[in-house]
Amino acid sequence: MRRSCKFLMRPTRHQVIALTACLDDHRALYNAALEERREAYKRTKISIRYGDQSAQLKEIRACIPDQARWSFSSQQATLRRLDKAFRAFFDRVKAARTPGYPRFKGRGWFDTVEWPKDGDGCRWDSQPGPPAATFVRLQGVGHVRVHQHRPVQGRVKTISVKREGSRWYVVLSCDDVPAETLPATGAVAGIDMGVASFLTTSDGAQVGNPRHLAASADRLAAAQRNLARKKRGSKRRRKAVARVAALHGKVRRQRLDGAHKAALALVQDYDVIAHEDLRIANMTKAPAPKPDPDQSGAFLPNRAAAKAGLNKSILDAGWGVFLTILAHKAESAGRELIAVNPANTSRTCARCGHYAKENRVTQAEFRCTACRYEAHADVNAAINILRAGLALRDAAAA
């Protein structure tokens, strides 16, 4: 089993300068390789591959001393990153989706450098100092202290350095991580995701929606207004940008922490968990404009403002992050996770199976028009999700 660990780094001032230079040089390599691919195809209709550009690295390092101070394997990883972006582009073209041609990376859009193998230009837990401290050695940077808050399990495969605002993190990708199987509980549950409540189980338990972004909205708005007043390129503007990034980083960490805690509680309590197979990207699309047939160039109201508010609430809840974390924890704990089509689960009676739009009286109230069954709307939906999940499991086993 492969797992990732993320630890906060404690670089010195000189190491921060070196890490920043490492990012800048790898970004320059990425952009130069992208430019070469674009120009070669534009002028000669020849497609340049990863192997062609990797073979040029020795010449590049010989001509540009700044590139030679970094690990050869990390530069190969940067070129593979570009190659992966082009493969994804061609896959989208073949699937008739919006292509999205690979873009040049600005200073704020290239924040990660990867070393593909522990020991090749990097070394985890190199221990040059006190035995109680943890260090990672990076070629061209030195031994950087790491705040290791939990043990690393398995074998370290790749090492990445990531910048988030003013913080630096080391990300370890580990192979052969032993599964931490939990004892069976004999309990099953369906969960319904929502905005009023983050999730509701078929047992009636609810987890509130903390609305982290909404809680920080006033401070973010003030920081954004302060940023708008600053002159571009000034030192004060850089500080204002860092302030906005720090606030967004705090919201992201709060959301991740809540998702981890909610997912851990579910895998500890239930052997089988059925959840909605949500298409969040489709759910948060802006409504299409409605042309007015009676007036050329005019449009009818399409409730775009209300939909924008709902989209913001959905994204603030972080359903996608939570479901990803839940899948990882369920796999490690030996739990079964079942994704269910959510269509009509909130309007179908969990007692008699009658479906009607009128069954959903309000956001929280469900009253069946056929059998008069009453329940909380989210609990009713969670029961339907559980039944659909168990039916899928039985059909797969048959």
From TrEMBL:
Residues 1-45 form the Transposase putative helix-turn-helix domain. Keywords: DNA recombination, DNA-binding, Metal-binding, Transposition, Zinc. GO terms for molecular function: DNA binding; metal ion binding. Residues 180-285 form the Probable transposase IS891/IS1136/IS1341 domain. Residues 319-385 form the Cas12f1-like TNB domain. InterPro entries: Cas12f1-like_TNB (IPR010095), RNA-guided_DNA_endo/Transpos (IPR051399), Transposase (IPR001959), Transposase_put_HTH (IPR021027). In the N-terminal section; belongs to the transposase 2 family. This is Transposase.
